[in-house]
Design a protein that fits this description.
Shape of chain B: rod-shaped
Number of strands of chain A: 0
Mean pLDDT of chain A: 88
Strand content of chain B: under 5%
Oligomer: heterodimer
Mean pLDDT of chain B: 78
Number of helices of chain B: 2
Largest sheet of chain B: none
Largest sheet of chain A: none
Structural class of chain B: mainly alpha
Helix content of chain A: over 70%
Order of helices and strands of chain A: HHHHHHHHHHHHHHHHHH
CATH superfamily of the largest domain in chain A: MFS general substrate transporter like domains
CATH architecture of the largest domain in chain A: Up-down Bundle
Shape of chain A: globular
Helix content of chain B: 55-70%
Chain lengths: 448, 47
């Protein structure tokens, strides 16, 4: 399948809906928790077991994005979106079979393994194409798509819950719900497959996709891994995500504990509202901050995420328990930075490494997300448990966690400060010349 | 690279209906999700 080239007059505003149809679908992964209680009851599973399909899915997301990135760049967005559609949808169909036959391993294999490949390939599929269509606003373009990943859970969560309520929470009800999900997402994602187009190559572009006169540095994915810039951005993303997850993971118990001993305690219903509000901030940050990065620059926006993020954590630690509006406001800002960090990274990569293999480089960088996904909850939960054992309660339970989050953000801030333009020796033309040199020397020696 | 230069060749088709339909395709479910989110979020102030 060759990359679909846009016909003359094709509008670039048709590309974001194509990207959104994929990201709104695969974002369902974050609504997996809806299926957990009925699965536990119907198949007699523990909480840890019922989380397995999701966990494997996230691991596969990281692996397939990291290892499939170069293939996605070579085969183009339509191929990638087709793979995402087939894997994500058939993951649900396999899960339906697993639920109907009460074979939990089929659900793990289907949703976790097969569906997880769809998550990873789908996540990176539109990134490079969007950046090429919107060279003037890459932050906004990738912000729209990555906002979709956050939006996917907002759609799936009430939709799946309503479906389970209608079909019933027994194994046949769950199987039917999985089946409907698989078919509905296949139809929804088809829009992306049909609609996506790559921009027409410019006259001065070479047949292999490399610009003859590049607009800035062009670095291959393999070469990018050898640059300090890649690893500095890896640290930046990992620290920013870990700090965001720190709040997200414990949001509901955190707000309840912070105000437990005050005259205005927070009820369970209100804390659920707080979690929903955090999701809104996460989504708004993806599109808002990422678009702002087109105006103020990528390095500056990460200074805001990491610097102001540290300040917000400090405010929560120092005066958070004295003012509920201040606590909520700080948490919302932190979550908006968390979302913004995800959405701005492709444009930052484009600035440093060019458009040549930006999707593949982005895929490799997503391993930082997988690491943070393990690190963040681990730190927060472990410390909260230790504090509880030590007899602490209320806001004191989170003091150490908040300090650690501030330290992580400071590390990320320092890494961002160290980012410099990529050394010209890593640029494509320099690498090609370097590879050609021994051959040229050999040829000269042979002819001599 | 893109077609917003305002100089489209005469044979190009009007893509606006397609743009509206595709944005509605993705916008409608997103609006549903946001509506449910706002409903839940208001519980912070009323719950």
């Amino acid at each position: 399948m060759s990359p679909p080239i846009a016909p003359v007059g094709w509008s670039r505003w048709l590309v974001p809906p194509a990207a959104l149809s994929i990201h709104l679908s695969i974002g369902q992964a974050y609504a997996w928790s809806v299926f957990k209680p009925p699965l536990e009851e119907a198949l007699g599973l523990s909480g840890t077991q019922s989380a397995l399909p999701f966990q494997l899915g996230i691991v596969m997301l990281g692996l397939s994005a990291a290892f499939g990135g170069t293939l996605v760049e070579r085969r183009g967005p339509r191929w990638a979106m087709t793979v995402a559609l087939v894997c994500f949808s058939s993951g649900f169909l396999l899960s339906a079979l697993g639920a109907a036959t009460q074979q939990f391993w089929l659900i793990v294999l289907g949703y976790g393994f097969v569906g997880g490949i769809g998550l990873g390939i789908g996540y990176i599929s539109p990134v490079s194409t969007l950046i090429k269509w919107f060279p003037d606003r890459p932050g906004m373009a990738t912000g729209i798509a990555i906002m979709g990943f956050g939006g996917g859970a907002l759609i799936a969560s009430p939709w799946s819950a309503q479906m389970l309520e209608s079909f019933g929470g027994d194994n046949s009800g769950i199987a039917l719900a999985f089946l409907v999900h698989g078919l509905a997402y296949a139809v929804f994602m088809l829009l992306g497959v049909v609609l996506v187009r790559v921009p027409r190559p410019r006259a001065e572009e070479r047949s292999d996709g490399r610009p003859a006169t590049p607009d800035g540095p062009q670095v291959s994915a393999r070469r990018a891994l050898r640059t300090p810039q890649f690893w500095l951005l890896w640290v930046v993303l990992c620290m920013n995500v870990t700090a965001g997850i720190g709040i997200l993971e414990k949001a509901a118990p955190m707000i309840t504990d912070f105000f437990a001993d005050t005259s205005t305690p927070v009820s369970v219903t209100a804390s659920a509202g707080f979690v929903a509000l955090l999701s809104a901030a996460n989504m708004a940050g993806r599109i808002g901050w990422s678009s702002a990065s087109d105006l103020i620059g990528r390095k500056n926006i990460y200074r805001v995420y990491l610097g102001a993020g540290t300040l917000m954590y400090a405010l929560i630690a120092l005066v958070g328990s004295s003012s509920k509006p201040l606590f909520v406001l700080c948490a919302l800002v932190i979550l908006s930075f968390y979302g913004g960090g995800f959405a701005t990274i492709p444009a930052y990569l484009k600035d440093l490494f060019g458009t040549y293999q930006v999707g593949a480089i982005h895929g490799r960088l997503l391993t930082a997300w997988s690491t943070a996904g393990v690190l963040g909850p681990l730190i927060v939960n472990w410390i909260a448990d230790r504090q509880e054992e030590a007899g602490k309660h209320g806001a004191d339970l989170y003091g150490t966690s908040l300090l650690i989050m501030m330290a992580l953000l400071a590390v990320g801030f320092a890494a961002n400060e160290l980012v410099r333009p990529v050394h010209p020796s890593h640029h494509l033309d320099a690498v090609t010349a370097e590879k050609g040199a021994p051959r040229a020397r050999r040829q000269r020696a042979e002819s001599a | 690279m893109h077609d917003d230069s305002g100089q489209s060749p005469p044979e190009t088709r009007d893509r606006r209906p397609l743009i509206v339909v595709t944005w509605l395709w993705v916008g409608a479910p997103l609006a549903y999700g946001l509506y449910e989110l706002v409903r839940k979020a208001t519980q912070l102030f009323t719950g």
